[in-house]
Design goal:
- By secondary structure, this protein is an alpha+beta fold.
- The protein folds into two domains: 112 residues, Gcn5-related N-acetyltransferase (GNAT) (Aminopeptidase), CATH 3.40.630; 187 residues, Aminopeptidase, CATH 3.40.630.
- Strands 1, 2, 3, 4, 5, 6, 9, 15 and 16 form a nine-stranded mixed beta sheet that branches.
- It starts with 11 loop residues before the first strand and ends with a helix.
């Protein structure tokens, strides 16, 4: 790792090793406010160690005494183009700086210093959806703003309008309990059925996450996040809608993470089931920017641009930044997890 020129002399920046894990966990507790009783350590292991796209490349900063004071992790991801070729990506995700070292540029130094190593690892790009506070820092480091991810909302009742007005804030990390459908991990455990479902889905002409049986089984199996799956037929191969219920401001939102439908299959069955799930509205991604797909409009969805996160992109090994209309992103691809 090449440390930026302005890194303080008493700070060492390097790639993390397996031996750093206890110190990384302790740093996260101190810097991120992990609460006792929450499954944060298991969450970190699932997210960064068990990903079928590969373990997360991680960098740390340590002081003269060898104490870790900074952390930067990138979650491995893979996109697939319509012609079958792939894009090796990472998501800029977890970062932590010890309270005594904040304000010294450790976040930017670790992030920028990691880019050369990522290029050597044949990583094509970095992408993420930073909030309004952190986005200017990313843009200063060379990230480019792709645009707002288009999202749409389906209200579940007359009282949902007022609740939606109070939902313009970040959603809670942990999900609410819900009995609709079944645990997503259970649905995706049937690898043969999932393989049959994926074979029936038209991938279209967009750049999308490379959904494999292994990816889906990993992505939605962490039990504390309470991902649920609604079947659109008699079996998994007939289609699934994956969601989770979580609080966002004054509302309870059903985040529609993935809509996996064979050609000609409507997800209407899932929308009907979720109407009685105790949620105020459904939020889902769209492949169309500036206009709502006709099928969504017919099923009661309306575009709500204010709730869409802003996607940013940093080319690494490949000098390419896609336009938003070239991408097909589900909320499961970009939600903060």
């Amino acid at each position: 790792m090449n440390a930026p020129k302005d890194a303080p002399d008493d700070l060492r920046l390097r790639r993390a090793t397996a031996d750093d894990r206890p110190a990384i966990i302790e740093l996260c507790r101190q810097a991120l406010g992990w609460k006792a009783g929450e499954p944060n350590e298991a969450f970190f292991e699932w997210k960064h160690d068990e990903n079928p796209f590969g373990p997360s490349p991680t960098w740390v900063a340590e002081d003269e005494g060898g104490t870790l004071v900074g952390l930067r992790t990138f979650l491995r991801w893979r996109f697939r183009r319509f012609d079958g070729t792939t894009i090796n990506a990472v998501r800029a995700v977890d970062t932590a700086t010890h309270p005594d070292w904040q304000g010294r540029g450790i976040f930017s130094r670790l992030t920028l210093g990691a880019l050369d190593d990522l290029r050597d690892d044949s990583v094509d790009c970095v992408f993420n959806t930073p909030n309004d506070k952190s986005r200017p820092g990313y843009l200063k480091m060379g990230w480019q703003q792709v645009g707002k991810v288009p999202v749409s909302v389906r209200l579940t009742g007359p009282g949902s309008i007022a609740k939606l007005a109070g939902a313009r804030t970040a959603a809670e990390k942990w999900s609410e309990e819900c009995s609709v459908g079944r645990p997503a991990a259970e649905a995706f455990a049937d690898h043969d059925a999932v393989e049959a479902l994926l074979a029936r889905i038209d991938t279209g002409s967009h750049i999308a996450t490379d959904r494999t049986t292994e990816f889906l089984h990993w992505r939605y199996r962490f039990e504390p996040l309470r991902y649920r799956a609604v079947s659109l037929g008699t079996g998994v191969e007939d289609g699934l809608v994956v969601f989770r219920a979580r609080r966002r401001g004054t509302a309870v939102e059903a985040t529609i993470c993935d809509v996996l439908t064979p050609a000609g299959t409507s997800p209407r069955r899932a929308w009907k089931a979720l109407k009685g799930a105790g949620v105020d509205y459904l939020l889902k991604g769209s492949t169309s920017q500036g206009r709502l797909p006709l099928a969504d409009a017919r099923q009661g969805f309306v575009p709500v641009p204010a709730l869409g996160p802003i996607l940013t992109w940093r080319p690494v090994a490949t000098p390419m930044v896609p336009a938003m209309d070239q991408l097909a992103l589900s909320l499961g691809d970009i939600e903060l997890f």
